[in-house]
Design brief:
GO terms for molecular function: flavin adenine dinucleotide binding; oxidoreductase activity. The chain has about 450 residues and is α/β, with parallel strands linked by helices. Helix 6 runs parallel beside helix 7.
């Protein structure tokens, strides 16, 4: 496999759409690690990078480290052998796709790109010794560590909510078994029943996600339970693509959907999982299906490794995504504090590529590339009704900010042909990004 030079990395990033077409430059946790145990990947002539987490950020970084420099010893640690994506999981709830289509494995990364894929939990990170201890006791050494731990939930923010009750009132905001529970509950809901969904306050993963879910549940109900009601109890007064979503809801679903803002009492304070009763200033609502998406924070591993600050997220050098707390460790994806970039799969994939470019540059003592990141969020309001928002990002005084005039949102008042075209783009976007990260 070819080793890229710095100029070729820049060209590759442009070709892959990871950067805007015009740019000038590319962009302690104290552990109980058993140090007497032999490391699986001993130090040698090859630089070693360990990537923890096989979602959009981690898979992207692992693949592009090998693309940019095939001589790097890259190990990806991910406990699951298959990965169901959150993007597309709302389409699954509506019956527009199936679980198999949105579930991917790591064979391409392992067999084609020669990434060492290990399916294990991480039990400890030792920044001083530069080691990662796996749950089975094995030890991995690294020269650079990339952590893409995703999110965790602040269950304690809502009375009655805990990890013990999510089998009854699933959040379904980490795709997999939770998604299947909600899928089943939606289909078993009585005719004319009430579905309550409670989106969290900012910041959280995939800002349009809860509202696409409202749309997809409405699409299912319109066909199968037309007298059902959807009540959206929101912890915020505004949300991503709000005008577009509300326009689509009114056009397609009439009065099926009611949205209650935080100012109007929508913020949920208490839930009773046994009776499926939700309490907020708007009232006490007895629902048939309850889908509370809890407030969020960085994934557990980020806290265990001491990578978070008082915000509950991970501060990083936003040019390289290297932690400002532990040198030599990079944090990408939802857990990182990445300026104006939303927490999304596309953002994580873009950050993974930029982080890979930064690490390769550091290994070769090249000048650090100047990053350009991108994000696109497509949402379906029905099978033939899509909307989108896109943006390009660059550094502004040490912080990631938007590029003026780049990106944009779908227009209000567009005709049916335009909305259908965007729905087709949404499905094309999903096929393209998942093929890039897991299947090619």
């Amino acid at each position: 496999m070819k080793q890229f030079n710095r100029r070729e990395i820049i060209k590759a990033m442009v070709a892959l759409g990871a950067v805007a077409p015009v740019y000038s430059v590319l962009t302690g946790c104290v552990s109980n690690a058993p140090k007497e145990k032999a490391q699986l990947n001993k130090a040698g002539s090859q630089p070693r990078v360990v990537v923890i987490g096989g979602g959009f950020g981690g898979a992207s970084c692992a693949k592009y480290l090998k693309r940019f420099d095939s001589h790097i010893d890259v190990t990806l640690v991910e406990p699951k052998e298959t990965y169901m994506t959150c993007p597309g999981s709302n389409w699954y709830l509506a019956g527009l796709t199936d679980a198999k289509t949105i579930t991917h494995n790591y064979k391409s990364l392992s067999e084609k790109h020669k990434v060492n894929v290990i399916h294990q939990m991480v039990s400890a990170i030792d920044p001083a010794a530069k080691t990662v201890t796996l749950a089975n006791g094995d030890l991995l050494g690294y020269d650079r560590l990339v952590v893409s731990p995703g999110i965790d939930f602040k269950y304690e923010a809502i009375e009655g909510l805990s990890a013990d009750v999510i089998d009854k009132i699933p959040h379904a905001y980490q795709a997999g078994p939770q998604t299947d529970i909600l899928y089943k509950q939606i289909r078993e809901m009585k005719q004319g029943g009430t579905f309550v969904i409670a989106p969290p306050g900012n910041p959280f993963r995939c800002p349009p996600g809860p509202y696409e879910r409202v749309s997809m549940v409405a699409a299912y109900f319109k066909a199968n339970n037309p007298t059902a009601k959807i009540l959206v109890l929101d912890a915020k007064d505004k949300f991503s693509k709000q005008g577009l979503f509300k326009e689509g809801w009114a056009e397609l679903y009439g009065d099926m959907i009611e949205w209650v803002s935080a100012t109007d009492g929508g913020a949920v304070k208490k839930v009773d999982a046994a009776t499926k009763t939700v309490t907020c200033d708007y009232g006490t609502i007895k629902a048939d299906v309850v889908n509370i998406i809890p407030p969020q924070k960085a994934g557990k591993l980020a806290f265990a490794a001491g990578l978070t600050n008082e915000t509950g997220w991970c501060p990083v050098n936003q040019e390289t995504f290297e932690s400002t707390i532990h040198r030599g460790i990079h944090v990408i994806g939802d857990a990182s504090i990445a300026g104006k970039m939303p927490k999304s799969g596309h953002s994580a994939a873009s950050q993974g590529k930029m982080c890979a470019a930064a690490i390769v540059s550091q290994f070769h003592n090249w000048a650090m590339p100047r990053p350009k990141n991108v994000n696109t969020c497509y949402s379906l309001i029905s099978a033939d009704y899509g909307i989108s928002v896109a943006a390009v990002y660059e550094m502004h005084d040490g912080t990631i900010g938007g590029v003026s005039g780049a990106g944009g949102v779908s227009p209000m008042g567009a005709d049916a042909a335009f909305r259908k075209m965007e729905a087709n783009y949404a499905r094309g976007w999903y096929k393209s990004i998942t093929a890039d990260l897991w299947n090619s």
